[in-house]
Amino acid sequence: MTASNVPTDTAGDAALTEAQLAVLVDRFYDRVRVHPTLGPVFNAAIDDWPGHKALLVSFWSSVALGTRSYRGNPMAKHRGLPIHAAHFEQWLDLWQATASELLPAVQAERMVGHATRIGRSLRYGVGIGERTRGLGLPLVDVS
């Protein structure tokens, strides 16, 4: 986010609320459901969308607000899904667009930061992490 996108007033510095998270999660997953690539994966994996959205509000509340209300194992839930690196990129792009549309710039930037870190962890956890070392050098397959 560039300096020109940051609001000059302090409205974006107000604390994020669980109500804002609920709207963000609801709108985001409505978009995921109809997305040409993400939709088929999510729709096949989720039977109860209202319940799933409520669970994810709890998850994001724990992440962003520190409520500790989420009980679950996101890594285990994602391990068996037919997902690839492109899914994570599309998911993050959609999250960023939705957060930027619904939240003040400062809050949107924070939520995108959280999502970026979580997405990176999930990618590694499901075995599709970036194949680079800390110095940015590609790993060589010697097998």
Automatic annotation (TrEMBL):
Pfam families according to UniProt: Bac_globin
Sequence positions that bind heme: 78
Keywords: Heme, Iron, Metal-binding, Transport
GO molecular function per UniProt: heme binding; metal ion binding; oxygen binding
CDD domains documented for this protein: TrHb3_P
Protein name per UniProt: Group III truncated hemoglobin
Organism: Marilutibacter spongiae
